[in-house]
Each structure stands twice: as C-alpha cells, then as structure tokens.
Specification:
The chain is an alpha+beta fold. It is 32% helix and 33% strand. Strands 1-2-3-4-5-7-6 form a seven-stranded mixed sheet, with helices on both faces. Helix 1 crosses helix 3.
Length: 161
Amino acid sequence: MAFSMRRARREDSEAIGRMHVASIRKLCGGHYSPDEIEAWAAPRESGFYVEAIERKAFYVAEESGRVVGFGTLDVESGEVEAVYVHPRAARRGVGSKLLSALEAHARAAGLEQLRLCASLNAVPFYERGGFVRQHETAHRLAGGAEIRCVSMLKELRRGAA
C-alpha cells in the first residue's frame, strides 16, 4: 500500500504516541538494553506531542488512515529531533520521505545545515540521507536516563539533496 504525508494535527497526538513506542520497542532493541528501551518507551504526558505539533515542523506519514511514521524539526535550533517509523512500515521509504520533507522545510526556512542526535540503530539511515558523523554522545531521555547516540550534521547549501 502507498502512504501519504502531511503536517501533523493535534488530534494525531495519541496515534503518534502509540506508533513512537512501537517503533522504539521493535526497531531499537539490537542496540540498547531492555532497561534502556523501556526508559525510552516510557509514556509521555498527554500534551507532549501536541506542543511539538504546534511549535515545530511536525510531519506524519499515513497509510490507510493510520499514522505509520513521524518526523519533527526544530527550525529555531536547526535540529531534526525525530524520525520514527512503525515497524510494519519500516524499510519502505517512509523514513526517507519524512526526512526529505523536514529538509525541504529547513531549506525553505533558510537553514544552511541540519544537525541531529541519532540513535545507534538509526546512524546508517541518516548516513544514507547525507548526514555525517560528528562524535559519539549521550541523549538524556524525558525520565532522566541516558542512551548512547551519535551527533550528526548535514550541510544543505552545497547542493546536497
């Protein structure tokens, strides 16, 4: 089946949350311990996604009316904060399309580069998208736990697609 993309809406918040947890639990396990996965997949406050939807460039991918992926960009900081895909939609181009939408949004906003903190399982995905490793670091999760990740950067003005 084909998927479509659009800007996220407030009413997508619960579906985004469910999809986010499914993605973490199914796609990240090979790189993180069970305790790290559960800390990462911990429930968020009900307004967590709504605030991001209203303040950031927040896109969802849908298939048959269901959210199968999302991506967020903080234009102010130039940071791609998330690209997650439901396990059923993984490796079908959903993540790449979401990342392309975020990059197009960044270019339209006049950004010259994007940065992100990639989970270990996502580093190859971002490298295929033209991001370059900077250094290993840690990302503090909402509950206070930290997970290992890789700081990455992509130049947008040098003809990068």
